[in-house]
Backbone:
């Protein structure tokens, strides 16, 4: 049995509207930790092993995510989730070297995930499911992007969505 790598999530809530989102935090962490566990085998191939993996998540309003989208991607519109990887990954395979690790802690920072809380509620209503389900879906979508999954074509999109839907269903967040 292989040893699991610790996974740390730093979460910032920069959302000031009067909507209770605290109930999303633990389920989001649970889903993200499970995605990392499911991808542990990929890291076994490397001679260098990080002591832990980490990511940063910000829950923001639609104006903030629109501003971030414009600044970093040149797209002047709000979106539901943005991911900014700090390492190179391809379909769950992390590609890194000793210089990507924090030299003191041997931690590997995967990147940042920005989620629009406004989109959580809007899309939950559109797709006729709970806002909690939408929150864990967007968080998992963001992490899969950090792990090198994408949806630039139909085949990639199907693969990515199948990973998400299978995991969310298994953890009780299915449609």
Residues:
């Amino acid at each position: 049995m292989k040893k699991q790598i610790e996974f740390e999530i730093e979460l910032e809530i920069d959302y000031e509207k009067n909507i209770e989102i605290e109930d999303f935090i633990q389920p989001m962490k649970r889903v993200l930790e499970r995605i990392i566990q499911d991808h542990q085998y990929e890291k076994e191939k490397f001679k260098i092993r990080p002591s832990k993996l980490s990511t940063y998540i910000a829950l923001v309003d639609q104006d903030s995510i629109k501003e971030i989208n414009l600044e970093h991607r040149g797209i002047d519109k709000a979106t539901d989730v943005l991911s900014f990887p700090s390492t190179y990954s391809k379909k769950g395979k992390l590609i890194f070297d000793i210089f990507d690790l924090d030299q003191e802690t041997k931690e590997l920072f995967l990147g940042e995930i920005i989620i629009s809380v406004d989109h959580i509620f809007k899309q939950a209503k559109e797709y006729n499911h709970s806002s909690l389900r939408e929150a864990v879906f967007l968080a998992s979508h963001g992490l899969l992007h950090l792990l090198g999954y994408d949806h630039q074509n139909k085949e990639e999109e199907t693969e990515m969505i199948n990973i998400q839907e299978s995991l969310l269903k298994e953890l009780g967040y299915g449609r």
The two ends are 33 Å apart (CA to CA). The helical segments are 22-38, 40-43, 62-73, 117-127, 131-146, 154-170.
